[in-house]
Design brief:
By secondary structure, this protein is mainly β. The protein has a single domain, classed as Glucose Permease (Domain IIA). The protein is built from one helix and 13 strands. The strands form two sheets. Strands 2, 5, 6, 7, 8, 9, 10, 11 and 12 form a nine-stranded antiparallel β-sheet that branches. Strand 6 and strand 7 form a beta hairpin. It is globular. The two termini are about 15 Å apart.
């Protein structure tokens, strides 16, 4: 299954996210396509780890974890995986999550009429020079995966949680937490899958 343009994205250009990720990590990382279990997808009500029961709220984003190489072997990202920024912008918040830190980035608008656009990277270990107010460039390595030992017993694998959203009015970043992100009136969450700019496959279970 290949991706198609998302009508709600204010950015017409491709992100080159996957290609940039490949080029800045292990030489043997060759991503033929991303692999997703249904519970990893945007708005999924299912967990893909632990007891596999339903989530309390729909998934706010996408869990990026598995990929297939050209030989058809499935691999998982590791805690050393470096992650690039999707677009130019600035870091507006860094906050704790249950596996590490979350980076919130507000991206430069395409034009004055375009909605605001932000991306949120969860379970991250920000690069040493990352801080609130820091300008980032598209493709710049801004974090790696943060992965404590504890989740291994729950069936969790190292993964990046990606949330994306558009807005037309100012976001109160000082009050932004994972509890309020889904209910923030000025923020419309959208499916981040097209941002990967790469083929993908969704497993049946």
């Amino acid at each position: 299954m290949s991706q198609s343009p998302h009508p709600k994205f204010p950015f017409p250009q491709k992100t080159q996210f996957t290609r940039t990720l490949e080029e800045n990590n292990r030489k043997d990382m060759i991503i033929s396509e991303w692999i997703f279990k249904p519970g990893m997808l945007f708005k999924s009500m299912d967990k893909w780890w632990g007891d596999r029961k339903q989530r309390t709220i729909p998934h706010e984003g996408l869990d990026l974890c598995l990929y297939k190489d050209p030989q058809g072997t499935i691999h998982s990202l590791d805690s050393q995986t470096r992650i690039p920024a999707l677009f130019n912008g600035r870091v507006v918040k860094i906050m704790k999550d249950f596996l590490g830190l979350t980076m919130v980035m507000e991206h430069d608008p395409v034009d004055e009429s375009a909605p605001g656009f932000l991306t949120i990277f969860g379970h991250a270990n920000p690069a040493k020079d990352m801080h609130v107010g820091r300008r980032v460039k598209k493709g710049e390595m801004i974090c790696s995966l943060s992965w404590p030992d504890k989740p291994k017993s729950q069936g969790l694998l190292p993964h990046l949680h990606i949330t994306a959203g558009t807005f037309f009015s100012e976001i109160p970043y000082d009050k932004l937490t994972w509890k309020v992100i889904p209910a923030t009136p000025s923020l419309t969450l959208i499916d981040p899958l097209p941002l990967l700019d790469w083929p993908f496959e969704i497993l049946k279970s």
